[in-house]
Amino acid sequence: MTRWRLTVEYDGGPFMGWQRQDHGPSVQQALEDALERMTGEQAPVIAAGRTDAGVHALAMSVHVDVVREITAHRLREGLNALVRPAPVSVLTVEPAADDWHARFSCVGRRYLYRILNRRAPPALERGKVWHIGVDLDVAAMAAGAAMLVGRHDFTTFRSVHCQSDSPVKTLDRLDVRHKGDEVLVEAAARSFLHHQVRSMVGCLSLVGRGQWRPDEMRKALEARNRAALGFNAPPDGLYFVKAVYP
Amino acid sequence: MTRWRLTVEYDGGPFMGWQRQDHGPSVQQALEDALERMTGEQAPVIAAGRTDAGVHALAMSVHVDVVREITAHRLREGLNALVRPAPVSVLTVEPAADDWHARFSCVGRRYLYRILNRRAPPALERGKVWHIGVDLDVAAMAAGAAMLVGRHDFTTFRSVHCQSDSPVKTLDRLDVRHKGDEVLVEAAARSFLHHQVRSMVGCLSLVGRGQWRPDEMRKALEARNRAALGFNAPPDGLYFVKAVYP
């Protein structure tokens, strides 16, 4: 048996999310089904992060155990051929140590949130960005974002369905910048609470619109209360960028 | 009556092309139908370039005559609301002179062709790039592309359905460069023959794969013979970037 480490790109649009569900398609199921058709083996494919419905991945790290002897090249080519037409692509495959775990070995996760900030709605990037038609104040958003960096109780930015043991997390980075007609938010932490990035971006959008002052981000954080939350940004603009390992 | 000048972004994927057709949806029809629902007027929407099925536009210039009094802002907002769910977005609207013509006043057209050059197929950019899984020699492609720049008889790179009076065109620019895991081809000319960009990119891909030497681009050009053509690149990677006016 070999434990394989894969990086996977996917378009979250048609999926109920990463995790296998009874009521709809998932990225995990698409990969597990492709593997079973290829090898006859039923094996769980475990990811660094379990993204929500509609959330994309540029490079999700996953692992899976395969009994059959196979090369890394053939495993990647076979999965990419059989996973079609699901919009999932295996970018890299390499053997990993037996105790390497995509989720539990991961010491850092990075997300990108893309806001299309122009008057006209997206035609080419539909489902891939959050469209906000009024000019956002990016400097104010960056100032508000800076107040969330560090070790805090992020209860305000946590879904009621969050299964994390503790609401205390260390946010290493939350940068906001312009790129063309997009406003990009980049977030890095060892781990995130459920809906944390989308909640933070939702509040930052209020700052960008001038509805919140930047320091209201700190007030929301200090409230430690889900009711202090503005709202979640939609999944369309969210990308899992990278999982970091020691 | 006001002649309006619009710039329009669209995803060519679901369309038979720009031009209105009996047998399927077109970008032109989507815009004309939206205008009619908004104003009750049936007016042709004329574009700088009539893109093929599956070809996208970042900013197509078009014009349309509207009798009803309306502001530029309301025209844009109304069209964007009514054109849905078609993936078409009106970026800008401004009044134009009565004799300004999106097609006949245009003195320059720019196209971008995106090749995703990595082993794994696209998941996020499916339908938006041409996937080539073997490493392309970009320097050889650039050398081959340079041989097509200038005033030439482009019969080799012309569709049999081309309606242009003459196969002689002046290609101002044909640049090839790397950007991340993409190879980008940028083309500029006053006008292009039907399928010219896709034909040139198809041949350049043969150079990139090492199947043609760069100077075989010149031989193909000098043959003035459609049979000397490698093949057309698929429409997925082609974008109309900009129309230039005096």
From TrEMBL, chains A, B:
Protein name as catalogued: tRNA pseudouridine synthase A
EC number: 5.4.99.12
SUPFAM superfamilies: Pseudouridine synthase
Quaternary assembly: Homodimer.
Similarity-based family: Belongs to the tRNA pseudouridine synthase TruA family.
Record-annotated Pseudouridine synthase I TruA alpha/beta domain positions: 8-104, 145-246
Cross-referenced InterPro entries: PsdUridine_synth_cat_dom_sf, PsdUridine_synth_TruA, PsdUridine_synth_TruA_a/b_dom, PsdUridine_synth_TruA_C, TruA/RsuA/RluB/E/F_N
Gene assigned in the entry: truA
Active site: D52
Reaction it catalyzes: uridine(38/39/40) in tRNA = pseudouridine(38/39/40) in tRNA
Stored PANTHER family: PSEUDOURIDYLATE SYNTHASE, TRNA PSEUDOURIDINE SYNTHASE-LIKE 1
Species assigned in the record: Sphingomonas piscis
GO MF, any single term: tRNA pseudouridine(38-40) synthase activity
